[in-house]
Amino acid sequence: MIRRVTYLAILMLLAAAPVLAGVAQTKHNFSSPSSSPNAYFWGAQQVCVFCHTVHNADPTAGSLLNHEMNPGTSYTMYTSDTMDMIQSASPHEGSLICLSCHDGTIAVNSLNNLPGPEGAGLYGSPGGSGLDGSGRISGSSHAFVGTDLRDDHPVGLFYDSTKDLNFHPKTGNSQNYPDKLLDEGLYVECTSCHNPHDNTYSNFLVESNNSSALCMRCHIQ
Prior knowledge:
This protein is of the alpha+beta class. 17% of the residues lie in helices and 6% in strands. It is built from 3 helices and 6 strands. It has helices at residues 2-24, 93-102, 190-193; strands at residues 40-42, 110-111, 121-122, 125-127, 157-158, 187-188. The strands form 3 sheets. Strands 1-4 form a two-stranded antiparallel sheet. The protein has a two-stranded antiparallel ribbon with strand order 2-3. The protein has a two-stranded antiparallel sheet with strand order 5-6. The longest helix has 23 residues, at 2-24. The N and C termini lie far apart (58 Å).
């Protein structure tokens, strides 16, 4: 039994290693001034803890979320006279998790479950020009999105090409485009284009956008 448990533990560590290795080299490694020179926290020693926890995660969100969220935050959504698809009144989880840091209303190190003894609070002391003194993303930072989303790609958008023939129809297969980019298989959210764990294609894009290839997964030129 001991050998079996040890073997399973090794497999779990190996499975997690590529993700950890990827994040550790990106600006989402807030424990490292070298990886994230504009936004880091002195005294922080864990990489994943800024977003995830294996215990006492936020029960209202998925992904074992450890970062605090404010469900009362109000966003001004994108508007356009040419947008025919239906947009929700606010972003969904695939965007709210990202916005919980990037809208600048909550400190990046404001966690539900601190490392070590159980308890909510702040983890580490903020450093870098991208953060203000409270650990929130500064309004002058290129990573700041804010709560006014009118100048950003629409999110909370129910993808329905029957409303606009300038978009590729869904295939019904979550492994094919455009379906594989949609949050819950339904919505355009931040996670449709961005993967917070991997910055291979810069700006944390899910794939290369050379010649607007990523845009054309949904849009018809």
